[in-house]
Design brief:
five-stranded antiparallel β-sheet, 524 residues, globular, alpha+beta, 13% strand
C-alpha cells in the first residue's frame, strides 16, 4: 500500500507537462472529406471548473493579456471587420426562417420545427464569428428615475474624448511618462471580525453580506460608468474578483491612465447600485405550504387557488407605487487602496501577479474545513444565501408570492441551481476576470493564437490556420465505444508533450551555446 499508484503517477506526470487531466472528447467531422476523428478538447475550453494544468494555462494567458493592454501607447484599432460571404449567407437564411415562422404562426400552423431551426441558426451565426443576436433587444427596457440619491454625493461630468489612453507627463529630464493605476475596492463592514471570523455571529449582518455578494457585479459596472464620466475618456480596465477572509468579494482593478486620487475617492464614495425588485420582507409560503403548479396559468396559492403575480406584473405594481423603495442598495466600503504604476517596473509585475494569483483557484479554496469557526461562518453565510433571490428567474421568488421569470414546474424555494447559491461560489455568480473591450486590442482567442504561433515556430512546425467553417464539432456522449480510455489518452498526450519539451530543450541549449561563443569572441 506504500507503493505509488501507477494511475496517479500518470496524472501527476500529465500535470507536470501541462496536459489537461480531464479532457473532453469531441468528434471532429471534416465537411470536405467526411472523415471523422476523435479529438480531446481541454476542459478549460468548455468548462468554468478547470483542472490544474488548464487553470495554470489560463492564468498565464491572462497575465499576458493584462501586461499587453495596461500601458498601451497607441490607440487600439478594433473596428469590426466586414462580414464574409458565409456570414452573409447565414443571416440571409435566418431572414427567410423568420418570415416562414411568422407566416406559419399567422396561418395557425405549428411553429415548433421552425423555432428549433432558428435556434440552431442563431448558434451557427455566433460560431461563424459574429457577436450578439440578429434581433438585438426584443423586450422594452424598464427604466426608473435617474435622479441621484440624496445620500450620495454628486459627481462632475466631463465631455467625452474619443480616446482610451490616459494623460502623459514630462519630467525635468524631458522623459515622458504615461502612468496607470491599480485600485483595490472592498465592501462595507457587516460586524467586527477577527482573522475573517465574526467576533459576535448573532450581530453580524449575514443578510446584508449575502445581498452584497449577489449584486457585487452590478456595483462594479456602476463604478466603471462613473469612472468614465468623470475621467472624460473611454477608460479601459482589467480586473479580478476574489474573496476576503470574511467571505465578502472584493475587486483588484488595473486601470489604463490616471486620475487625481481625490477624484477617484469621490467616485468610489458616490458609486451605488439600487436593486429594484419586488419586496421580500413578507414570507408568504414556507415549509410544506408552497405554491402549486397549474399547466395553463403557472403557480397558484395552495389555499385560495389564486394565481400568483408574474414577474412582470410584480414589477408593474412596484412602478405604480410612488412610495416604494429599492429592495437593496449596495455601496463600496471605506477601505480601498490606490496605487500609481509605471510600465516596465517591478511594481507593475507585482500587480499583474496579484491580479492573476487566484485564477487557478475556486473562490472557496482558501476556506479551511478543519477550522470549526471558519466552517461555522461559511455555514451561516450559505444559509443566509439560501432563500435570497439571486436573479429574476430564481425559484426563491415563490417564497415571497411572486412567480419567477420564465416559471416552470418543479420549482421550489431554497432549491435554486444557480452557482450563486452553491457554497463554493459564496454568492458571487459573475465572472472572475473582467476585461474591457478595448484593453489589449485582441480577444482572448487571439492571445491564445499568439502563444500557439510562438511554440510552433520554435518547434519548426507549420502554422496554417484552419478554415473555421471546414470542421463540425460534436461532443461525444459518455460510454462511446470509439473513445479510448482516459488513461490511454493521457499517455498519448504526455508522449507528445515530452517530445515537444525535449525539442525545446535542444533549442535552448543551442541558443545558450551561441551566446557563450559570442561572449568568448568579444572577450578575445
Amino acid at each position: 500500500m506504500a507503493m505509488p499508484l501507477a494511475r496517479k503517477v500518470v496524472e501527476e506526470l500529465a500535470k507536470q507537462y501541462g496536459v489537461c487531466i480531464r479532457p473532453i472528447p469531441f468528434r471532429r467531422i471534416d465537411s470536405h472529406t467526411g472523415q471523422a476523428d476523435i479529438v480531446d478538447v481541454p476542459c478549460g475550453a468548455t468548462l468554468e471548473a478547470k483542472c490544474p494544468p488548464c487553470a495554470k494555462r489560463n492564468q498565464q494567458l491572462r497575465k499576458a493579456q493584462c501586461r499587453e493592454g495596461w500601458h498601451l501607447a497607441e490607440e487600439p484599432a478594433n473596428t469590426p471587420k466586414p462580414a464574409d460571404d458565409h456570414q452573409r449567407y447565414l443571416v440571409g437564411l435566418r431572414a427567410d426562417a423568420q418570415v416562414w415562422r411568422e407566416q406559419a404562426d399567422q396561418a395557425g400552423d405549428s411553429t415548433d420545427d421552425l423555432a428549433a431551426a432558428i435556434d440552431d441558426l442563431d448558434e451557427e451565426i455566433n460560431s461563424a464569428g459574429m457577436r450578439g443576436n440578429v434581433l438585438g433587444r426584443t423586450t422594452g427596457k424598464r427604466s426608473r428615475s435617474t435622479r441621484r440619491r440624496q445620500d450620495a454625493p454628486d459627481l462632475p461630468k466631463r465631455k467625452m474624448a474619443k480616446t482610451t489612453l490616459g494623460r502623459t507627463f514630462t519630467g525635468s529630464d524631458g522623459k515622458t511618462f504615461r502612468p496607470s493605476m491599480f485600485v483595490t475596492l472592498t465592501l462595507p463592514s457587516y460586524g467586527r471580525v477577527n482573522n475573517g471570523i465574526p467576533t459576535d455571529p448573532d450581530r453580524y449582518d449575514y443578510a446584508g453580506a449575502a445581498r452584497d455578494a449577489l449584486h457585487f457585479s452590478k456595483l462594479v459596472d456602476r463604478f466603471v460608468q462613473n469612472l468614465r464620466r468623470v475621467a472624460g475618456f473611454d477608460v479601459q480596465y482589467f480586473a479580478a474578483v476574489e474573496p476576503q477572509k470574511r467571505l465578502a468579494p472584493h475587486l483588484h482593478m488595473a486601470i489604463r491612465g490616471t486620475l487625481p486620487r481625490a477624484e477617484l475617492r469621490q467616485i468610489i464614495a458616490a458609486t451605488y447600485h439600487q436593486v429594484w425588485w419586488p419586496p421580500t420582507d413578507v414570507i408568504r409560503f414556507d415549509g410544506d405550504r408552497l405554491p402549486v403548479w397549474a399547466e395553463d396559468c403557472g403557480y397558484l396559492d395552495p389555499d385560495t387557488g389564486e394565481m400568483l403575480p408574474t414577474w412582470y406584473e410584480a414589477l408593474n405594481q412596484l412602478d405604480q407605487d410612488d412610495e416604494a423603495g429599492p429592495l437593496h442598495v449596495i455601496r463600496f466600503g471605506q477601505q480601498h487602496d490606490i496605487q500609481s504604476v509605471l510600465a516596465g517596473t517591478s511594481d507593475a509585475d507585482t500587480c499583474i501577479r496579484y491580479l492573476s494569483k487566484y485564477l487557478t483557484k475556486s473562490i472557496s479554496d482558501d476556506i479551511d474545513p478543519d477550522d470549526p469557526a471558519q466552517r461555522a461562518h461559511v455555514e451561516r453565510f450559505t444559509e443566509a444565501l439560501r432563500f435570497e433571490p439571486c436573479s429574476p428567474t430564481c425559484p426563491n421568488w415563490l417564497r415571497y408570492g411572486v412567480q419567477p421569470k420564465g416559471a416552470k414546474p418543479g420549482m421550489a424555494p431554497g432549491r435554486c441551481k444557480s452557482k450563486a447559491h452553491k457554497p463554493e461560489h459564496l454568492g458571487y455568480a459573475g465572472r472572475r476576470v473582467l476585461v474591457s473591450r478595448k484593453w489589449s486590442n485582441k480577444t482572448l482567442t487571439e492571445h491564445k493564437q499568439d502563444r500557439r504561433t510562438w511554440v510552433l515556430e520554435a518547434l519548426g512546425l507549420p502554422d496554417k490556420p484552419a478554415d473555421p467553417h471546414r470542421y463540425v464539432w460534436r461532443q461525444v456522449p459518455n460510454g462511446d465505444a470509439n473513445v479510448p480510455p482516459i488513461a490511454v489518452r493521457l499517455l498519448r498526450s504526455v508522449h507528445e508533450r515530452q517530445r515537444w519539451r525535449n525539442h525545446m530543450n535542444q533549442l535552448q541549449a543551442q541558443a545558450d551555446g551561441q551566446d557563450l561563443s559570442a561572449t568568448e569572441g568579444r572577450a578575445a
